[in-house]
Amino acid sequence: QVQLVESGGGLVQAGGSLRLSCAASGGTTRTYTKAWYRQAPGKEREFVARIYRSDDSTVYADSVKGRFTISRDNAKNAVYLQMNSLKPEDTAIYYCRYTGWADYWGQGTQVTVSS
């Protein structure tokens, strides 16, 4: 059974940085496409960033482009999200997602950005 565990969330002031990590245990998901999503209070879950399994190309939501960077470590079967220049509107629960033969989600990590 595959489990994804996020870490690195917390409270940060506007303009600050955080680095989220997501690691998988169990299963064979090293080559899966990996992504980050987020869900703010009272809002639907939304896409943040994705890194493709085929060529490590990346895609970002317009709201985070230029501020966030997604990366992966295949040896550790992990995905990261470096978040810089954080804004209060980035406050949300952040989820990692591994997609391939199956679809897996982490349990989420809270990011709170104070103004």
Structure description:
With 115 residues, this protein is an all-beta fold. Helices cover 0% and strands 54% of the residues. The strands form 2 sheets. Strands 2, 4, 5, 6, 9, 10 and 11 form a 7-stranded mixed beta sheet that branches. It has a 4-stranded antiparallel beta sheet with strand order 1-3-8-7, with no helix packed on it. The chain is globular, with a radius of gyration of 13 Å. It starts with a strand and ends with a strand.
In short:
The protein has 115 residues and is mainly beta. The protein is 0% helix and 54% strand. Strands 2, 4, 5, 6, 9, 10 and 11 form a seven-stranded mixed sheet that branches. Strands 1-3-8-7 form a four-stranded antiparallel sheet, with no helix packed on it.
Mean pLDDT: 95
Number of helices: 0
The outline comes out as globular
Largest sheet, described in full? Answer: 7 strands, mixed
Structure classification: mainly beta
Backbone CA Rg: 13 Å
Core attributes:
four-stranded antiparallel sheet; globular; seven-stranded mixed sheet; mainly beta; single chain; about 120 residues
Question: What is the strand and helix layout of this fold?
Answer:
Layout: E1 3-7, E2 10-13, E3 18-25, E4 33-39, E5 46-51, E6 58-60, E7 68-73, E8 78-83, E9 92-99, E10 103-105, E11 109-114
Parallel strand pairs: 2-11
Antiparallel strand pairs: 1-3, 3-8, 4-5, 4-9, 5-6, 7-8, 9-10, 9-11
